[in-house]
Design goal:
homodimer, Nucleotidyltransferase, domain 5, five-stranded mixed sheet, 13 strands
Chain lengths: ~325, ~325
């Protein structure tokens, strides 16, 4: 038998509009080691945010070296998940509206500063791969990942491989039209799923009902009467307390998501759909009507061969997936 | 150098609700040889239709033997394209509403009768593969194929391979919701693309306008006043003659198809979209507003990396693709 190989490590970076999360994992994925996070502080500009990421990575490397008595050469590299559209081949963030970036060479900036190989992939792709590698979509062959937060991001595993499409845009599930003449979306289109079922859209729909109808609801009192302070979380909490308005909003959310997922099932015929993000806090109040809506809309054979599940890695799917995409891009296999 | 190999042949079968088309091609795809077709005559029942297919194949084999001085052992096998849902692994047509079939073992029935290997795939998949191998989508890596006729069928080539999904349902593009509360579709869902943009849906929308509005239009006179006789073809012809109602219907069709294609581009990020079927008769009157609608709705990067083109193999894409799927399934490569 060969001598026992030294353990090696990979760093994962999840760059969001609000926070940066950085973690280290053993290269085999079995150990989750140090994790550090910090506010993104987009106002620092692209170079400033890159500095911050490098700083967090240095801390994570030091933590890991201490915990595992590792040396710096045991680190194989850094996988970075960032908001897209991206140019993966050249390691660029083409546009990141929440960060104000344009054509920023994030991959090489990080890699050069650390003198480590680095890879770049879309944040929603990373979250999907994380759930596929170690979370709710383990064992799936065709996986649809949806992360519902400020927006609705998506990733696709097809025939056992992360699918990027022809120019790294694939999986933009949030920007599929479910209502031709519907609500205006930030992307410019009308009737996008995101315009109905993202966190802010859920809050907006709740406010609209409260303003339009003089219905008794717990919601206003939960935000001290300031309707503008209602968030999706407020709605989930009120729904759990049996509030009728909040429950209607959650049911409608299930209906919108159900229509969007039904479309994806008829197109992709996935065996797993992972729904992650704040919306999973709504629990069965969301998932029960969501499953019913999907069954009503999609082909029976597509519905019967899938499972729709909440994410199992809240907060870490992005980092785990960033490590996984580094393995796939740089080492050629997961 | 090796002795010149004997030319080999593959039979392709395109089984539709109305017609069966059977053709022979050289295994390298370079020669299109005998083609025969006959009405499907679904009233014969599954066994009767299978007999008819076998009879057509026998004729095509004899024709090819005569043309090419081939012998029976030069035929490698038969690729069959049939309406789905299918169980490819077991060679079954699970349900074919237009044929009245349930769990019919079409592949083995044909293969055993001819003593030749046979494969089965979805008709819309075959049409897409046909256009990819020898038609409008040549060279594409990620291809969306749409065939618009009585229904809207679809097929997907992803990362250079025909994509089937987890239970052979993938690519059901016609049954994606574009209007949550929209028209009822034969599939049971509401607001499917097919309910707006299939041939019969186009005719229905034209009739609705004529009944609702007392607008001057060429359409009634083109069908001797019998509005029920209006078909999609009538609409395209009237549009070409400058009829305002028909042009409105064609523009609306472009809008519906544009929304459906925009959804697919944001999900799949294809480099080619092939639109085939009768609808292509509408020409630029359709494709110009369709492209505009796609550009309005989909991500710029997805739009900029694709081309939306009419099919180049009207009538034969299904047979060519059936031959191609035989090669992929039975010989392992195209």
């Amino acid at each position: 038998m060969a001598a026992k190989k030294r353990q090696q490590y990979i760093i994962g970076v999840d760059l969001g509009g609000t926070n940066i999360v950085v973690g280290a994992m053993s290269a085999d994925g079995e150990q989750h080691l140090a994790v550090r996070s910090a506010p993104t502080s987009a106002e620092l500009g692209a170079e400033g945010v890159a500095d911050r990421i490098v700083g967090l990575i240095e801390e994570v490397i030091l933590d890991t070296m201490e915990i595992k008595r590792a040396s710096r050469k045991d680190f194989l590299g850094v996988g970075i998940g960032a908001p897209g559209p991206l140019d993966r081949e050249n390691g660029l963030v083409i546009v990141a509206p929440n960060l104000g970036w344009r054509n920023f060479p994030l991959r090489d900036r990080i890699g050069e500063r650390l003198d480590l190989p680095a890879t770049l992939d879309n944040d929603a792709n990373c979250a999907t791969v994380g759930e596929w590698w170690q979370g709710a979509a383990r064992g799936g062959t065709n996986v649809i990942g949806m992360t519902i937060g400020t927006g609705i991001g998506g990733g696709l595993i097809l025939d056992g491989k992360l699918f990027h499409g022809s120019s790294d845009v694939a999986g933009e599930i949030g920007h599929t039209t479910i209502d031709l003449n519907g609500r205006h979306c930030k992307c410019g289109n009308y009737g996008c799923l995101e315009a109905y079922a993202s966190g802010p859209a859920i809050a907006t729909r709740a406010r609209e009902v409260l303003v339009r109808e003089e219905t008794a609801s717990l919601l206003p009192s939960m935000v001290g009467g300031k309707l503008d302070s209602i968030t999706a979380e407020t709605v989930y909490k009120a729904a759990q307390q049996g509030d009728a308005v909040a429950n209607e909003i959650v049911r409608d959310t299930a209906r919108y998501l159900g229509a969007g997922i039904a479309n994806l099932l008829n197109i992709i015929n996935a065996d797993v759909v992972v729904v992650a993000g704040g919306v999973t806090q709504a629990g069965d109040a969301l998932f029960t009507p969501l499953n019913a809506e999907v069954r009503r809309r999609a082909f029976r054979r597509a519905v019967d061969s899938t499972r729709i599940v909440p994410g199992e890695l809240p907060g870490t799917a992005g980092v785990v997936g960033a490590v996984a995409t580094f393995k796939m891009q740089h080492l050629g296999a997961l």
